[in-house]
Amino acid sequence: MAAGLRLHLCPRLRAFAASSRPLFAAASRPLFAAAHSGALPLRRAGPAMPLATRARRGLSSSTAAAPPAEDDDFATAADLRFEPPLQVVKYPDPILRARNKRVNAFDANLRTLADEMFDVMYKTDGMGLSAPQVGVNVQLMVFNPAGVKGEGEEIVLVNPVVYKSAKRLLPFEEGCLSFPGIYANVMRPESVKIEAQDITGAKIKVKLSGLPARVFQHEFDHLLGILFFDRMTMDVLESVREELKNLEKKYEETTGLTSPETVDNYKGTKDVFSFSR
Questions:
Q1: Which of 22, 73, 132, 137 has its CB surrounded by the most CB atoms within 10 Å?
Q2: Cα–Cα distance between 230 and 92 in angstroms, integer?
Q3: Are 190 and 178 in contact (CB under 8 A)?
């Protein structure tokens, strides 16, 4: 993928070179079908099935929801409570930095939350959205690299973990729905290998590359409380510093509170290979 491609993430593709489209699956093909040369075998008992098919929203399943764990690492019913219509949380709201708990209740409430997130994503011209971006601090993301309702494949990933990333880094101009109007280059690995669960709780193990890998990494950062400007070099950050400060000022004016963070205290780029807080 060329550096000139623009990606509006949480996310949205603002300008996509026509010559790059063959790199990614067409709407009629599952994004992570076995035919994808970079895909790993999916690890699941029973007949083989593409990730996109198993992870798309609305898929019915007889998988029993696990009982809530007596463990602070897992979300409670209160943690998963939400009120539609969902609204996108804007920087510097502390919700974006809060710890996001793991999910172990794969029930109707989780499916409804995923559906609501997709609806917000499409209404805001997104390609992906994480739960903390709509005020729910749990490890859940939804995305569709096609960015258009009715096209591509709708993917739901729960409790994702990155266990390997490519050494080759690619720059893209990213944006984020939590940072309206701000776009800047971010370097990320061109591919990642992940483990996760789908909306039914079934385990998934797969390699993502190209646009799906970029979308996933942006949303995965949100689940770690990492924001896209944390990945920018100081030179790139300087180009959007005033816009970030304007968002901090708007937060203070809207809430009457002091901004919980400021770009003026930024300490430097977070290692692009680091997938921890």
A1: 132
A2: 13
A3: no
The identity of residue 210, as a single letter, is G
Q: Give residues with Cβ within 8 angstroms of 86, minimum separation 6.
A: 116, 117, 119, 120, 134, 135
Burial bucket for residue 109 (CB in 10 Å: 0-12, 13-18, 19+): middle
Task: Return the higher-pLDDT residue of 151 and 33.
Answer: 151
* 116 in active site: no
What CA–CA distance (Å, rounded) separates 30 from 36?
Answer: 9
Q: What is the mean pLDDT of residues 230-237?
A: 94
Q: How far apart are CA 68 and CA 76, in angstroms?
A: 7
Residues shown for the chain = 277
Evaluate whether 259 touches 94 at the Cβ level (below 8 Å).
no
Q: How far apart are CA 118 and CA 97, in angstroms?
A: 22
- The tokens for 263 are 């770009």
Question: Residue 105: is it exposed, middle or buried by C-beta count within 10 angstroms (0-12/13-18/19+)?
Answer: buried
- In angstroms, the CA 277 to CA 275 distance is 7
Residue 32 reports pLDDT greater than 50: no
266: confidence class by pLDDT, cuts 50, 70, 90: confident
Q: One of 116, 219, 243, 252 is an active-site residue; which one?
A: 219
Tokens of 123: 């209404």
Token pair of 115, please? 């559906």
88 Cα distance to chain centroid:
13
